[in-house]
Amino acid sequence: MKKYEVEIHFVNGDKVQARVDARNRKDALRRVKETEQYKEFASQCGDVVAEYSEPIDIEPISNEDFVVTAILNKPGWHMVANMKKGIRVEFKDGMYNETQRIVRFGSEELSALDEATALREIGDFMFANFRRLV
Predict the structure, then answer these.
(1) pLDDT at residue 102, rounded to an integer
(2) What is the pLDDT of residue 69?
(3) DSSP class of residue 132?
(4) What distance in Å separates the CA atoms of residue 134 and residue 121, rounded to the nearest whole number?
(5) With a cut of 50, which residues of the chain have pLDDT below it?
(6) Are residues 84 and 67 part of one domain?
(7) Is residue 124 included in any domain, yes or no?
(8) What is the Cα–Cα distance from 14 to 3, expressed in whole angstroms?
(9) pTM, whole model, 2 decimals?
(10) Do 72 and 89 belong together in one domain?
């Protein structure tokens, strides 16, 4: 199985973007369309005007690059740091997307693309290893 990035555009201008493990492009589209979230969203958007699925290569993330710890003076909060990129995210347990606070601690200046990549890597790492916290 490979990882695919899927994008589905609707007549009303909305779109669905997803990453999915699949055997091929057609299988990637099918897997996204079979989810309850997609069915519910699509029922409100009208006809599909375009569909794409492209294979993507995601570089494996080493656990040595990340540190996850509880924030002692903030009960119910954790922090995850990308040690290579010098960036960390503080968040309330179970509310990663809603409460995240991004802090740079490295001396290296990151471009917007590098920062976005570092944050994606943190999110991927947390989802793969600490799903109960996010």
Answers:
(1) 93
(2) 87
(3) T
(4) 14
(5) 60
(6) yes
(7) yes
(8) 23
(9) 0.53
(10) yes
Domain with 94 in it: 63-129
Instruction: Decide if 45 contacts 11 (C-beta within 8 A).
Output: yes
C-alpha dihedral sign at 31, 33, 39, 44? positive
Of 88, 119, 118, 113, nearest in space to 103 by CA:
88
| 47: number of Cβ within 10 Å | 8
DSSP code for 74: S
**Parallel, antiparallel, or unpaired for β 87-92 and 66-70?**
unpaired
Spatial separation of the C-alpha atoms in residues 72 and 100, rounded to whole Å: 17
Q: Are residues 33 and 69 in the same domain?
A: no
95 plus 123 within the same structural domain: yes
Contact status, residue 127 vs residue 58, Cβ threshold 8 Å: no
> Are 89 and 52 contained in the same domain?
no
Query: Shortest CA distance to 82 belongs to which of 67, 96, 103?
Result: 67
pLDDT tens digits, 91-124: 998 899 899 999 998 777 888 998 999 999 999 8
pLDDT of 87: 92
Residues shown for the chain = 134
β-sheet bridge partners, residue 6: 18, 53
Read off the tokens for 100.
Answer: 């995240």
